[in-house]
């Protein structure tokens, strides 16, 4: 551990490398997490199938690359396809668990996750896949800091998608309806908002966001039919830390998580990377609880 | 109720009697082998390789007339279950195969972890298990009597890569002890065993380990480890993390422009890195249990190349060594059943223990712990999208290229290699 710190001390540009890697992978987490926060906030459903949506988007990009099509064109296609899938899943399954105990929805979406995993395994095979984007790499500091261009492109895409989403929710009528439904579904319904349609749209929108994230991620990170869970877990952690209904919070928590993982992996060793992040989550929750407790005492 | 006419009754009886009389004689009897192999989950890909290898061998043996025991002809068949790549399910299914389905001969699952989960069950019921996909040394140190592995153990996987590095240093007039090594090994029984084997060789030569990372099981990004590699510039980078590790490593080493003079990996051919990522994987060294260019032969399949051709014709892709070692496990049963001339598990077990069989996969002879000690590992190097055997010397098709040409990456590392 000390020796790893010494490396950073002797070669400070490496810290920049770790920071960049963290932020770049954090952008992908941010998208998946934002989708999760949206669904959680509006429909009170924790979507466990989040990671599987991401992987499915990734496989669509892989299929594009296999057929000689430019993989980045797969992003809108994946988003559209996943929107459709999300809509169908909502109308057939999720609609039955909405408004019920959260445990029901966790079970239902867990089931969806398993079915999607198996289907992807059947259709796309059990192999690990990655898309070769054909883009290059920028080198700085005599090669000590290298920035993979496709990761930057993924980052920019994620940023644009995030901004578009914020505008949609903030400015459009549909976005307003979504926010109204999240705040008070019965009042929204009384004012003529078709809440069931809003729920369906939110769930489908989340699937589309995940699909786009996956189609982007497949250009830089390996995907596999059965490894969606790591995206689900990270999304969950980010939302727990940032809270639902807070786009800026989710984005900064996601990138903070990416950076924390990078540095923890480097300094403590990769075996402690995930453990450190979970430790951090516990620390955040304990701190929150303590702060809430203090507020409560002040109120009394 | 209308009575069935007498003539029809008589006819029916005759049919039944004929069937009973000829049932045993005309159609061959079947010996069923049992296997719980991953069809879904993390190991789905190599689970398929394992099944395809088993099936090819069963087909080949049956096509040659099956197995002759006491003048009776037996065909082989396999009963499969999907262990979903989880050890608990594997244990459950092994129990089910033996207790409910009455299977008396087991074939192994894919991976050391799942093999380990099944071993206590086969020991308990005293049923032999021949496996081709559990390589960790710990499978053979617990005093089990019913496991037989046709493959070399994982500590031997990358030994020859370390030897090559040492030889090369000497050739350049430098001491092998001046070589620095980086290790990035997955946190599972198999890869940690590869690490232990590599460490033995490293220590023997007095080389220095500068990075010793354990990769998480859910790995899809290695950039942290590679940042360290960039800073410390080791001469040799050794990575083992199943297919995902191999694929992530070669893609990111290329993308992040990390230069290492020697890169050694496991699971290259099952991950198809040479085929799918030809440029990125060029000149990487890969550990293999088997290669189709080797000069081994047997009576069922012919040469190693014949095996590969037969496999390609049936399944439409190049066989990874996981396929070959699975097929070899079935050959061991065919040989042992004939020598035992019995279907008693205990007698067959003893026949397996006494096996000394030349196969297309290499010679197979078990030591008292049940591992094959007659077949060496091979080391290949990726050249223009193909795996070329470079060690051991007697099978080498070409000499190894060390260091990786710098054009592959740009960094200027100083190295004794």
Q: Provide the gyration radius of chain B in Å.
A: 24 Å
User: Structural class per helix/strand content of chain B?
Assistant: alpha/beta
Count up the domains of chain B.
Answer: 2
- Please give the share of residues in helix of chain B: 40-55%
Average pLDDT taken over every residue of chain B: 90
What is the spatial order of strands in the main beta sheet of chain B? 8-7-9-10-11-16-17
Binned strand content of chain B: 15-25%
CATH superfamily of the largest domain in chain B: Response regulator
Mean pLDDT of chain A: 90
Short description:
Chain A is mainly α and 300 residues long. Chain A is 77% helix and 3% strand.
Describe this structure in words.
The complex is a heterodimer of chains A (300) and B (417). With 300 residues, chain A is mainly alpha-helical. Chain A has one domain: ABC transporter involved in vitamin B12 uptake, BtuC, CATH 1.10.3470. Helices cover 77% and strands 3% of the residues of chain A. Chain A has 12 helices and 2 strands, in the order αααααββααααααα. In chain A, α6 runs antiparallel to α9 and α7 crosses α9. The longest helix of chain A is centred in the N-terminal third of the chain and has 31 residues. Chain A is globular. The model of chain A has no long low-confidence stretch (mean pLDDT 90). Chain B is α/β, with parallel strands linked by helices and 417 residues long. Chain B folds into 2 domains: 196 residues, Response regulator (Rossmann fold, 3-Layer(aba) Sandwich); 165 residues, Rossmann fold (3-Layer(aba) Sandwich), CATH 3.40.50.2300. A 7-stranded mixed β-sheet of chain B has the order 8-7-9-10-11-16-17, with helices on both faces. In chain B, strands 2-3-1-4-5-6 form a 6-stranded mixed β-sheet, with helices on both faces. In chain B, α8 links the parallel β9 and β10. Chain B is elongated and about 95 Å long. The C terminus of chain B is likely disordered. The interface between A and B is large, with 44 and 41 residues.
